[in-house]
Amino acid sequence: MRFPSQIRWSKYAAIVFAFALARAHAAEHVYLRTGADLVCDHRETMADQVRLYLTASADNYLDVAANEIVRTEPVVEPTPPAAQPARTSTAAERPMDLPALLHHAGIQHNIDPDLLASVVRAESGGKAHVISRAGARGLMQLMPQTAAQLGVHDSFAPEQNVAGGTAYLDALLSYYHDDVALALAAYNAGPAAVARYHGIPPYAETRRYVQRIIHDYNRRKRLEAKETAAQKPLLASFAAATAPGQSKLGGR
Question: Which domains does the chain have, with CATH numbers?
Answer without folding.
Answer: 15-74 (2.30.30), 96-252 (1.10.530.10)
